[in-house]
Amino acid sequence: MTLQDKIRGRVPHFDSVMAYTQIVLGCIIGGMAYPLFLVPNSIAPGGLSGLAMVLNHLFHWPVGLTSLLMNIPLFLVGYKAMGRVFVWRSLVATVLFSLAIDLIKLPAMTVDPLLGTLYGGLLLGVGLGLILRGGATTGGTDMIARMVHSKLPFITVGVFLLMIDCVVVLLAGVVMGTSEGLYALICIFVSSKVIDMVLAGFSSNKACFIITPKWEEVTRHILSDMDRGVTQLTARGAYSGEERPVVLCVTSPQEVARLKDIVREADEQAFMFVTEAHEALGEGFSKLAGGD
């Protein structure tokens, strides 16, 4: 039993606690990106917060409060399209994220727009990724996008959100300058890639595929010596046309060497390939938990 499983057994609603912990941490990290990198360099990172940046440039309105005021009516319109838990967590995340942008008072780390774009996008991506992992979002635009998609299925959620980002970038280019608009595009790209990395997980578990006629012996040793689960997949050789089992086993990086030894001892002619398993959930790994 892992330490996380032990804590889960002692703390009621452990998964909710973990979700809100990720949301709060994500709001703080994402909020820090604005005073440290984005606001000093006039980089509008898309979405309503990017639009709030444009308004801040024009009227000096606080970015967080402006973003929050724009999000509230979108929540009121779009909450029926989403589940109750998701809406509540998203509302909490939106309020905390907006407060973090305005209340976290940190001096700018750089006035180099390229560095501000890259590191601002990195911090923002980590923050938003953690919020999404916690089962929330920071913008009512997601809800509106889902409603639009339900009415107009040919417009996907991703396309709708991309349209919003494009409009914000165009506004940033017109209001703040062409260079700032181009930097905003880079920031959106960096943050989206980092969000994907956070959602996929930072673990480096390995998925090992083994093809050998000694599959029974290999399977037996994996189960007994490594105490790891094994899945047998059915495959057909393209040249021989014969069916043969493929042994699949997910391990930690430290266990790959031991698995290679087991395969080598059973069959030196075996074929084995190892790929990344970004996030392994279930028995022997992190628990596959659902939201509350």
Key traits:
4 strands; elongated; 11 helices; alpha+beta; four-stranded antiparallel β-sheet; about 290 residues
β-strand number: 4
Low-confidence stretches: none
Distance between the termini: 22 Å
Note the overall shape. elongated
SS-derived structural category: alpha+beta
Average pLDDT, all residues: 86
Q: Largest sheet at a glance?
A: 4 strands, antiparallel
Write the H/E string, N to C: HHHHHHHHHEHEEHE
The helix count comes to 11
Beta strand %: 5-15%
Helix content: 55-70%
Placed side by side, the strands forming the largest sheet appear as: 2-3-1-4
C-alpha Rg (nearest Å): 24 Å
List the helices and strands and how they pair.
Elements: H1 3-10, H2 14-38, H3 47-59, H4 63-78, H5 84-103, H6 113-133, H7 141-151, H8 157-175, H9 178-200, E1 205-211, H10 215-226, E2 231-236, E3 243-251, H11 256-266, E4 271-277
Antiparallel strand pairs: 1-3, 1-4, 2-3
Helix pairs in contact: 2-5, 2-6, 3-4, 3-8, 4-5, 4-7, 6-9, 7-8, 8-9, 10-11
Please summarize what this structure is.
This protein is an alpha+beta fold. It contains eleven helices and four strands, in the order H-H-H-H-H-H-H-H-H-E-H-E-E-H-E.
Would you give an account of this structure?
- This protein has 292 residues and is α+β, with helices and mostly antiparallel strands.
- The chain has eleven helices and four strands.
- The protein has a four-stranded antiparallel sheet, with helices on one face.
- It is elongated.
- The two termini are 22 Å apart.
